[in-house]
Amino acid sequence: MIVKLNFDSEIPIYVQLRNQIVVSIGKGDLKQGEKLPTVRQLAEDLGINTMTVNKSYGILKSEGFISIDRRHGAKINSTLTPGIDFKEKLDDELSLVISEVGLKGIEKKEFMDMCEKIFSTMKGIKA
């Protein structure tokens, strides 16, 4: 698993890690059922604190992207289903993104084309 963290970013490391794992699942780089590195191993590989990785894994688990078993470690969930909470979160986040897009002068067609292009690169999602 290739993870690139920006230590100068205002985005916390645990959020960057969480986001990169989600995108890797979406792109198909991480497959459903695939094991993730242990917290210790990933922390060592990235040069970060184990608590940072643990926090990312905890968020991913609570969001349903991964499951964690004491004996077998963390793995990508084989069934990913959206809940009502996720749809509400998505609505809020899309409202913000669309507002920013419009305020920055990007036309709807250009935005939709960008979305289509990105969506087409996501080999790990069932569409």
Automatic annotation (TrEMBL):
Family matches, as SMART domains: HTH_GNTR (SM00345)
Flavoprotein among keywords: no
Glycosyltransferase as UniProt keyword: no
InterPro entries in the record: Tscrpt_reg_HTH_GntR, WH-like_DNA-bd_sf, WH_DNA-bd_sf
Keyword terms of this UniProt record: DNA-binding, Transcription, Transcription regulation
Domain of life: Bacteria
HTH gntR-type domain boundaries: 11-79
UniProt GO molecular function: DNA binding; DNA-binding transcription factor activity
SUPFAM superfamilies reported in the protein's UniProt record: Winged helix' DNA-binding domain
Any matching Pfam family: GntR
Protein name: GntR family transcriptional regulator
Organism: Romboutsia weinsteinii
